[in-house]
Amino acid sequence: MPTNELRKLRQHHNATIGLFVAFWIFTPTAIVVIEFFDVSQRTRDALIGTIFGAAIVLSLLQFSKRCPYCRANLGWQARLGIPGHCRKCGSILREGK
Fold first, then answer.
1. Are 19 and 25 in contact, with CB atoms under 8 Å apart?
2. Helical packing angle, 3-36 and 41-62, nearest 10°
3. Cα–Cα nearest to 68, from 93, 37, 43
4. Which one, out of 12, 15, 35, 78, has a CA that is 20 to 30 A from the CA of 60?
5. How do residues 29-65 score in pLDDT, each as one tens digit?
6. CA dihedral sign of residues 46, 49, 53, 54
7. Residue 61: CB atoms within 10 Å
8. Phi, psi angles (nearest 5°) of residue 54
9. Which ranges in 1-97 belong to alpha helices (H)?
10. Which range of residues forms the domain containing residue 44?
11. How many structural domains is the chain composed of?
12. Separation of alpha carbons 79 and 35, rounded Å
């Protein structure tokens, strides 16, 4: 059993959820700043670029992990983070599911 890989998957799961929460705190804040405050065009472009860049990075993180047993892509198996078990081989990836 690759326990080191399972530990990394669990850390990836927690990091992905944390980044998702941070993204949804940042995005409305940035939109409020763009819409209601007098900021320069350069600042607006930077905020919009950051929003889209963060969305792309989060998407890549979601689909970057594979099952350590069968190498199936885990991003398609969960809405966010990693699933509790692999749908392809049935391996348990996280406790408490």
1. no
2. 160
3. 93
4. 35
5. 999 999 999 999 999 999 999 999 999 999 998 888 8
6. positive
7. 16
8. -65, -40
9. 3-36, 41-62
10. 1-97
11. 1
12. 30
Residue with tokens 């705190």: 25
Type of residue found at 88: K
For residue 57, the one-letter residue type is V
| Tokens at 44, concatenated | 């607006």
Count Cβ neighbours within 10 Å for each residue of 25-55 and write b for 16 or more, e otherwise. Answer: eeeeebeeeeeeeeeeeeeeeebeeebeebe
Q: Is the pTM value of this prediction over 0.90?
A: no
Q: How many CB atoms lie within 10 A of CB 78?
A: 17
Residue 58 burial class via C-beta count within 10 angstroms: exposed 0-12, middle 13-18, buried 19 and up: middle
